[in-house]
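ugh ok fine here u go
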Amino acid sequence: MYKSLPDFLTINKSTIHGLGIFATQDIPSNSDLGISHIKNSMGHFENNYIRTPLGGLINHSDEPNCIKYQPFVLASPLIESGYEPAYYSIKTLRLIEKGEEITVFYTFYKVAE
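structure:
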């Protein structure tokens, strides 16, 4: 059965902005939380990526506890090749405690002050 978020994550009110993603249990460091952005080159989406529920509700932090990354990227640097990943996932940078909001440093655009 499809679930928009894994069982260890939930949506709740955020002190950062609106709603956010929160841990329902402790999550170990270096854990993959799931796909946040999926490539769609039709031109109807900001930066040509569709945000999943995880990517759409995760809030920005200058000191994030997670990172957006490209799974299965074997070559680097990729800038010269013009490669754009098919999707991005979110990975924890440290232990996330139950009740803690999941945050990333936004890279597709700058956060308005």
